[in-house]
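Dear H.,

Thanks for agreeing to be a second pair of eyes. The structure we're designing against is below in token form, covering all 275 positions.
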């Protein structure tokens, strides 16, 4: 029986149980892909990650990311939570505040700033799509590894009150080869001007509590449509209230890059036994 260090990290919060949890298995080179997928199904979190020795030159570590049903090349909150776990466990050490994560999307740059971890996202691919499920609201398909159909619902109250049709979102996701739908609206608050919700029922995740790749996709939508001027190149998004969470995602947007970041806290620290 293999015994591997295991952490469950809450991401986009400094307070346990208010962010988005990710399960992190350390020393996962002892596991096969099938074992990783079974563990991800067992944890039943939106993502479970596996830290391995790097194979790319200059990388701090290698990361594999699984939903309960499939492997992903990249995801936001698992990246930040896994970096937190790698630093906390001594698997990696930031050099001048920098880390490099090897994953399915390539080698990504991370920075550690005063207790917050930021990741530079893969370059998004954006295309317009039809999403009649959300009425006449404009929709874009944004590919950042995970693929989101992003919809602007105007005001945050429209986002808050949405009662999603999960079967319809699954059908839309399958039709557009997307992970799910991410919607957003304006709060009118300076501290967190955007409210976000993300739904991925086709991947076994009815509502993601605080979604990093969803927030990257919202930033790409804002940049693509010229709406970024409403919020500026740096803003904070809130997410998770409908599922009992209260996450905060810090977003930085420039002409050629998107970064997201936030705090993380370990809630579970122990050993995982794998037969």
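And this is the sequence the design step returned. I haven't edited it by hand at all.
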């Amino acid at each position: 029986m293999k015994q591997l260090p295991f952490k469950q990290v809450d991401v986009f919060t400094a307070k346990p149980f208010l962010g988005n949890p990710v399960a992190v298995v350390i020393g996962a080179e002892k596991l096969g892909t099938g074992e990783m997928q079974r563990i991800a199904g067992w944890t039943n979190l939106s993502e479970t990650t596996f830290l391995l020795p790097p194979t790319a030159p200059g990388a701090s570590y290698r990361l594999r990311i699984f939903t309960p049903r499939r492997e992903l090349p990249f995801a936001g909150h698992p990246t930040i939570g896994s970096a937190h776990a790698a630093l906390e466990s001594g698997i990696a050490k930031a050099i001048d505040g920098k880390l490099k994560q090897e994953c399915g999307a390539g080698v990504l740059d991370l920075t550690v700033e005063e207790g917050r971890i930021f990741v530079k996202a893969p370059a998004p691919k954006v295309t317009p799509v039809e999403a009649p499920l959300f009425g006449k609201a404009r929709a874009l398909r944004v590919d950042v590894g995970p693929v989101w159909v992003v919809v602007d619902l105007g005001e945050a109250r429209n986002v808050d009150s949405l009662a999603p049709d999960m079967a319809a979102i699954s059908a839309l996701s399958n039709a557009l080869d997307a992970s799910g739908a991410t919607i957003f609206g304006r709060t009118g608050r300076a501290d967190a001007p955007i409210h976000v919700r993300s739904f991925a029922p086709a991947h076994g995740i009815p509502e993601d509590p605080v979604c990093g790749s969803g927030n990257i996709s919202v930033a790409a939508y804002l940049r693509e449509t010229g709406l970024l001027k409403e919020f500026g190149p740096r803003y904070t998004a809130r997410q998770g209230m409908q599922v009992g969470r209260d996450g905060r995602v810090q977003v930085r947007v420039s002409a050629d890059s998107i970064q997201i970041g936030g705090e993380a806290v370990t809630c579970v620290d122990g050993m995982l036994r794998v037969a």
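Two observations from my side: The domain at 2-120+262-274 is CATH 3.10.310.10 (Diaminopimelate Epimerase; Chain A, domain 1). The first strand starts at residue 2 and ends at 11.

Warmly,
E.
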